[in-house]
Design a protein that fits this description.
The protein is an alpha+beta fold. Helix content is 18%, strand content 50%. It is built from four helices and 18 strands. The chain has helices spanning 32-57, 61-74, 80-106, 211-216; strands at 18-19, 22-23, 111-123, 137-152, 156-163, 168-179, 182-190, 223-236, 239-249, 264-274, 277-290, 293-307, 311-322, 325-339, 343-353, 362-375, 378-389, 394-406. The strands form two sheets. A 16-stranded antiparallel barrel has the order 3-4-5-6-7-8-9-10-11-12-13-14-15-16-17-18. Strands 1-2 form a two-stranded antiparallel ribbon. It starts with 17 loop residues before the first strand and ends with a strand.
Length: 407
């Protein structure tokens, strides 16, 4: 209010103070102490409101923020009316933040995830081997993937996969799946060859991929730029009898432009007569440019897998022809889920022949291991690998441990 003298009336009632027993004159304007009190109350309101907004974003407003307000009222630091005002203002500011968090959490348009893998390996070979990077022991970050994907209107999808450990883009593609029986994908991704080939390293039963698959399933971890169609046919209860993938690819591996006028073809056809049992084969037909000449690059494979609550089995045979160089390989993997989603034991035998035309070109390998999951897709793996390498005339053993975290 403004008094008759044109001055602003005090916000607080006039106070008559006593100093050394003498009364002082009443204040007709805001005192220094009153200004400090007003500023303090205003700042406290702003601080409490900020805290309440933080609590609301973390979805605990209904408990923590109200407890803070009650404590401040009990201590006479703010009035009940101020507390009610702060709560009302916080509620109005909480809604946009909560809506944004719910949208990010529940939206199909954008999902962000990833995983990292760190490996320690040691070998009894003084010169080391491929698993220990030429040393008798080695620690390394195998992968540090960040994955972004999403869907639009249920039929359009995309995926981007980047590896921070190598600063390399592994996958980037878009897809259109109007119905279950047919979908189209365009971009860079894993070529549909063999059963194991398209499987993510985060889901491998053992720490390392199967040697025969790695050598014959394609370059760059089996990834390439291409156009693919895929789908599921003939539904039977909650699964499909037929699954197929077929596409044309550059044939030069990921992040590498095509170097000839020929597109390679790759396809896989699998049959599932009963739930969990799939069997079929893959073909790959292409050309590789060597010294300005296109050479044959053909492969085929046959295999099967069985997945149940406690048991997983997979085996494949792969044959390849690279400009007359005939190669082959086969493997078998068996895993028992002691406690499903928690404890697993696994055994794998792998045979690879680098050149069928000459002797002593085989590599035989046995792997035994155990997997412990402490969170979904987050695990500790321990593997023992026995290798009989006739190409280098070496027999050696490797022990490897991998720590994998998925988010």
């Amino acid at each position: 209010m403004v008094n008759s003298e044109g001055r602003v009336a005090p916000c607080e009632p006039q106070v008559v103070s006593t100093i050394h027993g003498e009364q002082s004159e009443p204040h007709h304007s805001l005192s220094y102490k009153s200004l400090n009190s007003i500023l303090l109350i205003t700042l406290m309101k702003r601080l409490v409101l900020s805290l309440m907004c933080m609590f609301s974003i973390s979805a605990v407003f209904s408990q923590s923020a109200e407890e803070v307000l009650k404590l401040l009222v009990d201590k006479d630091m703010i009035s009940q009316s101020d507390a009610d005002e702060l709560k009302k203002e916080s509620e109005s500011k909480k809604q946009p933040a909560a809506q944004l968090l719910n949208f990010v959490k529940n939206s199909e348009i954008f999902n962000l995830s990833g995983y990292g893998q760190v490996i320690y390996s040691v070998s009894d070979n003084a010169l080391g081997n491929a698993y220990t990077n030429g040393q008798n022991n080695n620690m390394k970050v195998a992968r540090a993937f960040l994955l972004a994907n999403g869907k639009f209107k249920k039929v359009f999808g995309y995926q981007v996969l980047f590896d921070f450990s190598k600063a390399t883009m592994h996958e980037y593609y878009g897809e259109y799946t109007p119905i279950t029986s047919i979908g189209v994908r365009f971009g860079q991704y894993k070529v549909p060859f063999t059963i194991e080939g398209p499987t993510s390293p985060a889901r491998w039963e053992t720490i390392y991929s199967t040697r025969s698959v790695e050598q014959l399933a394609g370059e760059s971890a089996g990834r390439d730029m291409g156009l693919q169609v895929s789908g599921k046919l003939l539904p039977i209860q909650d699964f499909h009898f037929v699954q197929y993938w077929a596409g044309f690819f550059n044939g030069t591996g990921m992040n590498t432009p095509d170097n000839n006028n020929h597109k390679d073809f790759a396809g896989t056809l699998l049959f599932q007569p009963i739930k969990g049992l799939r069997a079929g084969g893959s073909i790959y037909s292409g050309k590789r440019l060597i010294e300005n000449v296109n050479h044959t690059r053909d492969r085929w494979s046959a295999g099967a897998e069985y997945d149940s609550h406690y048991v997983y089995l997979r085996s494949e045979y792969i044959w390849g022809n690279d400009a007359g160089l005939k190669r082959e390989g086969c493997y078998g993997t068996a895993m028992y889920k002691i406690v499903p989603t928690k404890w697993e034991v696994v055994a794998k035998y792998d045979y690879y022949n680098a050149d069928k035309n000459i002797d002593n070109s085989e590599i035989n390998e046995f792997t035994g291991g155990v997997n412990y999951y402490f969170w979904p897709l987050s695990r500790i793996q321990l593997n023992y690998i026995h290798t009989d390498n006739k190409v280098t005339n070496q027999i050696y053993n490797t022990v490897a441990m991998q720590f994998q975290v998925f988010f």
